[in-house]
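Students often ask why inverse folding is considered easier than folding. One informal answer: many sequences map to the same fold, so there is more than one right answer. In these notes we will look at a single instance of the problem. The structure comes first.
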């Protein structure tokens, strides 16, 4: 049998709850010509998945979409053999097919993993889309210089922890914004950031100002909302802002344009200080930058120069609860659920 989660069909509210998803028992998928059957090892839980569900991006009745790390069981797909570890998109399911005719977001191309490069779980994190997101949004788009002040929100999360470390390695002064005090401490003590500020503090704006005495040259935006409002007055002339995500708004009413509202709030200061705002979509960088990113960053992760914290939970039954926890900040590091044995550890 193949256990997998789908949407229950209940109308979707702002955020998921216990009735949003249902666990189903399905038959084991059978690979056709050009396809491979794979066993899911790690399911990646990411904020964008909630947007997919609310916008109806996934095929109805199919397992909820997710990027996964899997192992090939049976292959009729050229280039993939039983035993291979792969990056693919089995979703919230114990088994899945990849290859010809299998629905997936266009840029999430299945690929074989080399366990020598790093832990296979990292293929959906620092050595995969999240690492590339941080690399593209920080190094390619914002391009921080030595001595500049860089602020990163959701700083202890999957993308934020890498974005901040890449800026630090460029010689920038890095300030992370996170929820719990433990996360703020982690970004300083473990990741080497210069300061950590809690967005839960009633004095967020003043705390951030104190942490950025020379203003903000680069802002890597993962959140929006009150965090953006605290950063806005601190922008220096010629500052750069990368809009990577706006997680504080992913539960807003359908039709609300959080980005447009944020640009409106910022427009006066953006104009006055000549702030460049760029939107990031990681899919735009897969062809052009993935290989270069992996060649540069994988050795830095392996050597420990770049640290990466994962929050690995266990069991297919736990997936929706873990997903909700991640959305409200109860993860500590990149959230994954392990649903079967990882033979590489
Ligand atoms: P994280 O691992 O950072 O998890 C989400 C974190 O967001 C939570 O842990 C929480 O951390 C923080 N958060 C949640 N709600 C709020 C809130 N209301 N205010 C402040 N912080 C909040 O997720 P990822 O690293 O996977 O994703 C980070 C961002 O990057 C997301 O916005 C995501 O959509 C975006 N993204 C964009 C891509 C692109 O192509 N542009 C590609 C991949 C990701 P805390 O406890 O610190 O509050």
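Output (designed amino acids):
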């Amino acid at each position: 049998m193949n256990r997998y989660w789908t949407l229950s069909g209940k109308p979707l509210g702002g955020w998921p709850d216990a009735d949003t998803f249902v666990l189903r028992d399905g038959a084991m998928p059978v690979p056709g010509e050009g396809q491979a059957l794979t066993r899911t090892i790690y399911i990646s839980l990411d904020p964008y998945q909630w947007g997919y569900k609310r916008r109806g991006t996934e095929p109805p009745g199919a397992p909820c979409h997710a990027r996964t790390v899997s192992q090939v069981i049976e292959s009729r797909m050229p280039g993939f053999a039983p035993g291979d570890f792969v990056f693919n998109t089995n979703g919230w399911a114990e088994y899945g097919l990849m290859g010809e005719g299998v629905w997936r977001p266009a840029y999430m191309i299945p690929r074989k993993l080399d366990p020598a490069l790093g832990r296979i779980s990292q293929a959906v994190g620092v050595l995969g889309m999240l690492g590339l997101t941080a690399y593209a949004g920080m190094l390619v788009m914002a391009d921080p210089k030595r001595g500049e002040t860089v602020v990163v929100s959701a700083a202890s999360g999957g993308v934020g922890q890498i974005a901040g470390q890449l800026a630090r390695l460029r010689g920038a002064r890095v300030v992370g914004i996170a929820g719990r005090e433990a996360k703020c401490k982690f970004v300083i003590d473990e990741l080497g950031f210069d300061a950590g500020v809690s967005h839960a503090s009633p004095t967020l704006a003043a705390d951030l100002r104190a942490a950025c005495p020379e203003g903000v040259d680069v802002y890597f935006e993962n959140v929006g909302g009150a965090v953006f409002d605290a950063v806005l007055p601190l922008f220096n002339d010629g500052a750069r802002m990368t809009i990577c995500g706006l997680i504080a708004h992913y539960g807003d009413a359908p039709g609300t344009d959080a980005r447009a509202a944020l640009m409106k709030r910022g427009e006066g200061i953006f104009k006055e200080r000549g702030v460049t705002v760029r939107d990031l979509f990681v899919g735009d960088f897969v062809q052009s930058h993935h290989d270069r990113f992996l060649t540069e960053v994988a050795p830095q992760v392996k050597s420990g120069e770049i640290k990466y914290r994962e929050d690995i939970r266990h069991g297919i039954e736990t997936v929706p609860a873990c997903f909700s926890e991640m959305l409200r900040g109860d993860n500590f590091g990149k959230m994954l659920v392990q649903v079967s044995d990882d033979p590489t550890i």
